[in-house]
Amino acid sequence: MKPKVKSNYILVCCVLVLAVLCFLSVNTPIRFKREQQRRELVVKQRLLKIRKAEMQYRRLYGVYTGSFGKLADAGLLADSLSYIPFAEGQRFDLTVSTSLGKSGRQIPLMECGATYGQYLQGLDANSITNLTEEANAAGRYPGLKIGDITTDNNNAGNWE
After folding, report:
1. 3-state secondary structure (DSSP) of residue 112
2. Are the beta carbons of 86 and 119 closer than 8 angstroms?
3. Buried b (16+ CB within 10 A) or exposed e, 24-63
4. Dihedral over alpha carbons 19, 25, 26, 30 (to 10 degrees)
5. Is the pLDDT of residue 19 over 70?
6. Are 77 and 53 in contact (CB under 8 A)?
7. How far from the centroid of its chain's Cα atoms is residue 155's Cα?
8. pLDDT at position 2, please?
9. d(Cα 144, Cα 122) in Å, to the nearest integer?
10. Quick check: helix, strand or coil at residue 79?
């Protein structure tokens, strides 16, 4: 009778371990999504401040700038806002260009963004890779950005 009791304890332990693993397999994606939304809110707010500063810079100088230093020197953006939140000191990618409009006029373009891998750093690597691959497969930017370096979109965010 003792071997039967021991095997019941072993079975109970196995059931508990499986229950915990089942809970974690469901809870991990939920926690990831919640943290992703929280981080994206902070990154979006910072991108909107950068967009506002770039628009003011364009009103003053007629072009956008690809330098956060110039925005800071003009008093339009605090230097600390050029850093991606949660990315351990990495800066947003800021690129400027011009495009030839239908009328032949040069149109200044600006793009500023952060990839999933940058602002979701420290979270589940497989989930970040999946998000990046989904965005690339759909032809979207793998992260959050404002503006577009190839077409004039009034510096809209890719979430708007």
Report:
1. strand
2. yes
3. eeeeeeeebeebbeebbeebeebbeebbebbeebbeeeee
4. 140
5. yes
6. yes
7. 16
8. 61
9. 17
10. helix
Which three-class secondary structure state does DSSP give residue 95? strand
Cβ atoms 63, 108 nearer than 8 A: yes
Pair type for strands 143-147 and 93-100: unpaired
Query: What amino acid occupies position 23?
Result: F
Residue 143's beta-bridge partner residues? 115
Alpha helices in the chain (DSSP H): 2-61, 68-73, 116-119, 125-137
Residue with tokens 């950005």: 145
Q: Is 80 helix (H, G, I), strand (E, B) or coil?
A: helix
pLDDT of residue 66: 94
Residues present in the chain in total:
160
- The answer to whether the pTM exceeds 0.90 is no
Q: How confident is the model at residue 114 (pLDDT cuts 50, 70, 90)?
A: very high
**Distance (Å, whole) CA 81 – CA 77:** 7
Residue 97 burial class via C-beta count within 10 angstroms: exposed 0-12, middle 13-18, buried 19 and up: middle
Separation of alpha carbons 23 and 38, rounded Å: 22
Residue position matching structure tokens 């021991």: 6
In angstroms, the CA 159 to CA 151 distance is 16
Q: List the structure tokens of 41.
A: 């809110």
